[in-house]
Design a protein that fits this description.
Length: 461
């Protein structure tokens, strides 16, 4: 039976009923609806709508429902209830009779769904935050091991300056740290309970909304009921956070897809996470990385769908909102999955250090060092840049590295150059010179690693 039977003389058209139902989506809110319902029952006890015994029985039955059905979702889905709220209500009433109906005093599905969605976001975010920390740890493990592995750093996908693989990992740890902090901030803002807002204008019962919020683990309650039942900003925020993080994961994937290419050949992905071609026997494809990169679109799609869904809606609740679950769930499921898959990649790849170093050596990535050397001898950087460029052309012409050019030849371009230039031009020296905060030198890398390690240890507790 529907929740509004009294006002209607005819039953719903079966096609409309199917179209209107959201149970196949919002069954995922079962835990949250039961949590908020138990809290509500306690408030009904405070205002004497329920007796002590009645509240206890309702609470016990709600917990029983959760335990019985959480592993039996198909049974929920086979019911013809409109949504998870009505399903819980009818299951409760079936079990304890009329008393079950009392639970719905003063509460609307409008404040119920807004509350449940926030509870769901809080639960999901805990899992996601753990995955972010795990992924940071996996980057950290590589970063500790690969402090001496030199790779070329790129701009415009052209070899620019040498870096280390460790340093590359540290860059992603920093990106993920911003994602983590953004997520915490998002959660802080959504941690406000809408329950007790009623349908749109508040509840006529004299309830303690702050206590109600606390009972569900919220830090406070909302201040305007009209806004509370129609606010879905938190979905936009959480999906924006997810989108930014997915953008990071897509760049990570792209870097590794390139590192794994035959042309770069810096890394090898284990057989366990690669797949073959049905036609070309030699192929070992980085599908996992391409999928992370590709699935990013699903999260952006969710975010844009949400913006489109909410745009221009009149206050307050509109049934359009029912569609929000689909995109919220889709976006955050993809994000969680891709974080897990990124960890899997890091745990299943090997570095080809020799090849990395050779490539770093090949691209004249020490040309900036040559210019800096000239500057240290009193030449202006603009002139030094020009002279360096000429020497690079000479080296290309001779098919040699800069450090292989003869001193006499170098002197032809600038008489100031002395023997000490060769020390300057080694990759190691290029790295070691970058010793200001955030640079690639061994010392700075060590400082970054120590800070990250401390943070990770405290987060993993
Ligand atoms: N299934 C609905 C939703 O997800 C629950 C709220 C229904 N409220 C209403 N006034 N029809 O938005």
């Amino acid at each position: 039976m529907s929740l509004w039977g009294g006002r209607f003389k005819k039953v719903s058209n079966i096609h409309f009923k199917k179209f209107n139902n959201s149970l196949n989506m919002d069954y995922r809110l079962i835990k949250d609806d039961i949590k908020s319902s138990i809290a509500w029952s306690k408030i009904l006890l405070d205002i004497k709508i329920l007796t002590n015994c009645e509240q206890k029985l309702i609470e016990k039955t709600l917990k029983w429902i959760l335990k019985k059905y959480i592993c039996n979702i198909n049974e929920i889905l086979s019911s013809d209830s409109e949504d998870i709220h009505s399903w819980i209500e009818s299951t409760l009433v079936k079990k304890i009779g009329k008393l079950g109906k009392k639970l719905y005093t003063g509460r609307s599905r409008n404040d119920q769904i807004a509350t449940n969605l926030k509870l769901w976001c809080k639960r999901k975010s805990n899992r996601i935050l753990k995955e972010i920390i795990k992924l940071q740890r996996n980057f950290f493990n590589h970063a500790s091991l690969q402090q001496n592995t030199i790779i070329p750093g790129y701009t415009h996908l052209q070899r620019a300056q040498p870096i280390t693989f460790s340093y590359w990992c540290l860059a992603y740890i920093d990106m993920l740290e911003r994602d983590r902090l953004r997520m915490l901030d998002t959660i802080k803002r959504l941690d406000i309970s809408p329950l007790g807002s009623g349908a749109i204008a508040g509840t006529s019962w004299n309830i303690n909304r702050k206590k109600l919020a606390e009972l569900m683990g919220f830090s406070n309650c909302t201040t305007n009921a009209l806004d509370s039942v129609s606010d879905r900003d938190f979905i936009l925020e959480i999906l924006s956070t997810a989108s930014i993080s997915m953008m990071h994961l897509s760049r990570f994937s792209e870097d590794l897809i390139f590192y794994n290419s035959g042309e770069a050949n810096f890394i090898e992905l284990s057989d366990e996470i690669t797949s073959g071609s049905s036609l070309m026997p030699q192929k070992k494809n980085p599908d996992i990385l391409e999928l992370i990169r590709g699935k990013c679109s699903g999260v952006y799609g969710s975010l844009i769908s949400m913006f489109t869904l909410f745009k221009g809606l009149p206050l307050s609740y509109n049934k359009d909102f029912q569609e929000d679950k689909k995109y919220l769930f889709q976006g955050l499921d993809i994000w969680e999955d891709c974080l897990k898959m990124s960890s899997l990649v890091l745990n299943n790849m090997k570095l080809n250090s020799l090849r990395c170093k050779q490539t770093a050596q090949e691209g004249y990535s020490n040309a900036t060092e040559l210019a800096d050397y000239l500057v240290s001898k009193g030449i202006s950087f603009r002139d030094a840049h020009h002279i360096s460029g000429k020497i690079v052309i000479e080296a290309i012409h001779q098919n040699k590295y800069l450090e292989e050019l003869d001193l006499l030849l170098l002197k032809k371009y600038c008489s100031i150059i002395e023997k000490d230039i060769y020390q300057y031009l080694t990759l190691e020296s290029c790295l070691e010179k970058k010793n200001a905060i955030g640079g690639v030198s061994k010392i700075q890398t060590k400082i970054a690693l120590d800070n990250i390690e401390k943070r990770l240890i405290s987060l993993e507790k």
